[in-house]
Amino acid sequence: LLSYLSFLCRYFRWWYKKTRIEKKSAFIDLLCAVPLQQIYGCPLGGIGGGTITRGWRGEFCRWQLNPGLYHYETVIANQFTVCLRCKGQTVYQQVLSVERPSTLQGWNWGYCGHYAFYHALYPRAWTVYELPGQNVVLTCRQVSPVIPHDYKDSSLPVGVFIWEVENGRDEDVDVSIMFSLQNGTGTKEDGSGGHWNEPFTFEKGGERVAGVLLHHCTRVNPFTFAISAREKAGTGVTHLTAFNPAGSGREVWQDLLQDGRLDSPTGKSSLTEKGEVTAAAVCASCRVPAHGHRTLELALAWDMPRIHFGSKEKLHLRRYTRFFGSGGDAAPALSHHALTHYGEWEKKIEEWQKPILENSHLPSWYKSALFNELYFMTDGGTIWVELPPDCCAEDLQGPAGAGLSHLLPVLREYGRFAYLEGQEYRMYNTYDVHFYASFALVMLWPKLQISLQYDIAVTVVNEDVQPRQYLMCGQTAQVKLKNVVPHDIGDPDDEPWQRVNAYLMHDTADWKDLNLKFVLQVYRDYCLTHDSLYLRDMWPVCQAVMESELKFDTDNDGLIENGGFADQTYDAWVVNGASAYCGGLWLAAVCTMCKMAEVLGDADIQQKYTDILSKGKEAFERMLWNGKYYNYDSSGSDTSSSIMSDQCAGQWFLGACGLDQGEFEV
């Protein structure tokens, strides 16, 4: 109890200094946790360009445009509104939202949720609206460019809304879909002044899109939204450049009600004053014949090409700037590309998902989880940046000189990738848990996994001798030791890659699992990619971390021992002596060292680790097997005989590499 109270005191002192004096957010905030809201649906956007999450009721409710930093705010002006007209008269006009807000009261709110249905299979979502009493059904299909093995379109900060309109009436109906959007993300910066909107059109290859640009001119990380629609035969696109989302909105409503179109004023809006908020709208309209079907296509794009992390020390360019430029003027081209290519995206998405969805041996819940949990690949505070053009190998290798011959070519071609441990555990590429999530990355975007591994390898051979106090134990130690895998590559509110190990709870230099997880991933990556250049580059790093790990085999029985504290990913669980989890990971890593040595023709290393494996397997069985399962650890404590579900983690990784049988079976 005393040690726990000491930790709380240390944490509070650190939290107060960080949040109240330095005016930064805590990487783990135990005092101001974000309340759970079960409102979230499928997020918008590709990988690394920021994300905007919509709720399953259609609201725009979570924002991650500044890299790695989240803002939870439903912006009520961001809506889709439908207008139906028959024989020149508006017969129905409704905001497609169940909300009844205190602003924009000149709009018709309170759509009955009984007449709508939501379904998501990431990266797509469908909302069906059966308009009550109208005999018209709308289906909004939301699509984001998240496409396996695609390293261009998958980086784009866009989302497309395809509205399928089914007319069950005996007469033609004119249908308009209006998309309104506030200039900003619902923060106080929306009213900071200096923001402005302007209409745009963009034509290329005979295809034309039109809409409004909303320029959000903040001092750090300015950006531009674009709301747009595709012009085609039978489809008209109109717009409203600016309106006040804090007012009644009556002028917008009446404009649409009058003729199913917006006035489309020319020219730019004026700059907003301090305290003033602005919004814009775009409207797509078409005539749907009796018992017929038509499609309206709208898009949302956002362009924040040049970003700073929290320290504001370095400028980074997002991945999509390689294809669309970094001048901050790409939103029209992004909108056009999205509206003219989403069909190709959907075809590739269906080709990827169809074999799994049609596999009758897999349960439905598993299929749903397999795809829908992938949302974190984009909405995990994810960042994907280009390497600076003047960057050289020496800049990347660090003072120790990592000797990674293909580091520069890999990062130059595929950029740098990072995602958070969690939206409330704000550390990039937290390696002990990336170990599990990495399967999604290496199977769907293997080049990003390779890039991430090169970044980790560089940090392994370098050190950071700066001292700091760790919050759990209160002891002081240096930030990063040489030849030890880091816990993470940094905090987005600081300067990731430059300053690693944002995790302050424990000194992870003594964790038993991080080094092993690097070795296991190297061989797993090689098995799936057959990238022999990668394997050769990583081999010296694997030897270095395994040599560092050997010091934890204190009795030379071929099996490492835990140190009597929470020295692995389960960082509130004390482990003492030989353990099922870390011991199993150790034996699996030793096994892959044997296999890598065999592949690379390193007979001495192969023999060294073969001998260790033989001893270690015997010690593992003798010290941990109780006749039914492996004990949690060998300490003989009250918890020692607990069954740990993750005791087979090492064996699981070997199975993924085809090494769980015969001589390599651990």
Written overview of the protein:
It is a single chain. The chain is of the alpha+beta class. Among the domains are: 75-345, Beta-galactosidase, Chain A, domain 5, CATH 2.70.98; 511-665, Alpha/alpha barrel (Glycosyltransferase). The protein is 30% helix and 25% strand. It contains 15 helices and 27 strands. The strands form eight sheets. An eight-stranded antiparallel beta sheet has the order 7-8-9-10-17-14-13-12. A five-stranded antiparallel beta sheet has the order 6-5-11-16-15, with helices on one face. Strands 1-2-3-4 form a four-stranded antiparallel beta sheet, with no helix packed on it. The model has no long low-confidence stretch (mean pLDDT 96).
Order of adjacent strands in the largest pleated sheet: 7-8-9-10-17-14-13-12
End-to-end span in angstroms? Answer: 39 Å
Instruction: Give the CA-based shape.
Output: elongated
CATH class of one domain: Mainly Beta
Largest sheet: 8 strands, antiparallel
Number of E-type strands = 27
Structural class: alpha+beta
- The overall pLDDT average reads 96
Low-confidence stretches: none
Pfam family, one: DUF608
Organism: Dromas ardeola
GO molecular function: beta-glucosidase activity
Protein name: GBA2 glucosylceramidase
